[in-house]
């Protein structure tokens, strides 16, 4: 029986339509192909084939842009937005415009070509998370940027053009629409109830348990009630924090454990599917001319989280035209498969 469900965070409706009782094996996921590639610019030893590194997690006494690193951050060779110049906001008639300034960086997660994030040790995943934190904190000092979005494309079907494990970040002079929707709705919720909507949601998920995928002392992973996609999974910190980058170092290791566990469950259950994930954190709150108190309540309103989406289905005409997603796997079923997979 199909159902329409509404996401309490974004007010977005989805159609949960498990009409065919799909099992994980019914998805023809093209698993992310693996080949060894001596010419790969992200492999250790090929540092000269990439733009100069911004920062890296390096062994002592190794030089930048030489081997001896564990995580390496470089500017994207083909950036979507350019780092130079001013934002230059302007209007042309009813059209709003600004210059395409921003930052577009690549986080190379490991020196080893054939090691996926799910297979890495928690300590090595922690270094990737350290890189995210470091870059967000640095780019937040730039008052041109309103938002810094960290994301990962794994597998060709998820948009990865190079198979060497990497994630990316893009800093933008605007707050992206989907994040803004979450931000403004969670602010409205806090204004009304003086409670965080994500904390409330997590509390409810933990008490019902039917959509929980994994939990440890500090993090919870669950399939959201109004999942847009089969096996969509969110990771939230149990403690209320508005920004990812403020996560203390000792707590980050538990996040690494949670991320590894969830990615491993997806890999086992769905035969190493392509996936995307995105880190949703608070926007850049640096004060700027004319906006001295930009989002002064953000600390209370918002709760950072990671959204993971395996790429098992394609968006078709109805989704494109309506923004209404049809999900053939109920989140309760998906969570059950993932819970029982290991
Ligand atoms: Zn490589
Ligand atoms: Zn919260």
Explained architecture:
A hairpin with a 2-residue loop joins strand 5 (90-92) and strand 6. This protein has helices at residues 122-139, 177-193, 197-208, 249-270, 298-301, 317-322, 331-339, and strands spanning 3-6, 13-16, 55-58, 69-75, 90-92, 95-97, 103-108, 147-154, 166-172, 212-215, 219-222, 233-237, 275-280, 305-310, 325-327. The chain has one domain: 2-Layer Sandwich (HIT family, subunit A). The chain is α+β, with helices and mostly antiparallel strands and 342 residues long. It has a ten-stranded antiparallel β-sheet with strand order 3-4-7-9-8-13-14-12-11-10, sandwiched between helices. A three-stranded mixed β-sheet has the order 1-2-15. It is built from seven helices and 15 strands. It is 26% helix and 22% strand. Residues 37, 40, 42-43, 113, 164 line the site of one zinc ion. Residues 37, 40, 42-43, 113, 164 line the site of one zinc ion (ZN).
SSE blueprint:
Layout: E1 3-6, E2 13-16, E3 55-58, E4 69-75, E5 90-92, E6 95-97, E7 103-108, H1 122-139, E8 147-154, E9 166-172, H2 177-193, H3 197-208, E10 212-215, E11 219-222, E12 233-237, H4 249-270, E13 275-280, H5 298-301, E14 305-310, H6 317-322, E15 325-327, H7 331-339
Helix pairs in contact: 1-4
Bound molecules: zinc ion (2 copies).
